[in-house]
Design brief:
By secondary structure, the chain is an all-alpha fold. The protein has helices spanning 17-20, 26-45, 50-57, 61-68, 77-86.
């Protein structure tokens, strides 16, 4: 017996899944997610254990574990940026006028 193909309705996303899900503070959550991803990539690329990463970041291993599982909610954007500088990264913040009604936040990661 063959199953009938069901159509799946899809919409093009805005580029911010948090906004698409109508979650509060969507821009901030996207920023946190991108910073957390960069932290994750650096820790994995260096082959750091969670304990060693915790020593570098100044947090306990269970918090590193939560961070690496993208549970960054406990950390502010400022704290995530501090983690990146502890990992030897420079952070540059640029503020400029926008032509839109409201500005937006973006993260650019240099390769």
């Amino acid at each position: 017996m063959m199953k009938k193909n069901k159509r799946v309705r899809a919409e093009e996303g805005s580029g911010n899944v948090f906004a698409d899900l109508d979650l509060p503070h969507a821009e901030q959550e996207l920023l946190k997610a991108r910073l957390t991803l960069q932290i994750y990539k650096i820790i994995k690329a260096r082959g750091l254990t969670q304990a060693k990463a915790g020593g570098i970041l100044g947090i306990k291993q269970p918090h590193v574990s939560a961070l690496l599982r993208n549970r960054a909610g406990m950390f502010s954007v400022e704290r995530l940026m501090e983690f990146l500088t502890n990992l030897g990264q420079d952070i540059e913040i640029t503020v400029r006028p926008t032509r839109k009604e409201h500005g937006e936040v973006s993260v650019v990661v240099a390769a």
